[in-house]
Amino acid sequence: MSNLKHLLLFCLLAFVPVSNADVWAEREALSNIRSELAALEVLVMSAKARSNSNERTQFEYETLLADLRKIQAGIAHHLTVPMEPVIPSAIDALSESYTEHQ
Length: 102
What we know:
Blueprint: H1 2-50, E1 57-59, H2 61-80, E2 99-101
Antiparallel strand pairs: 1-2
Helix pairs in contact: 1-2
């Protein structure tokens, strides 16, 4: 019986660091995503600068940038306060259309 207790204790202790490692791996991945979104924002600004404002159909760059910033802010918030419960009414919806027809 004593061996079974030791085995159970060993198994429990063996899995604790794995769950902590997963939390840090997730945080690192989210931080990387945030960095990639910042780089993507630069690309969007570059595309906006090259766009033709005389075209009949315009891409809504400002809407896209606002959505990218919302996602970045959500990730930043999670990284600073990871245990805060999500309140559905506090989540900003992303835009559904990035094209405007004139």
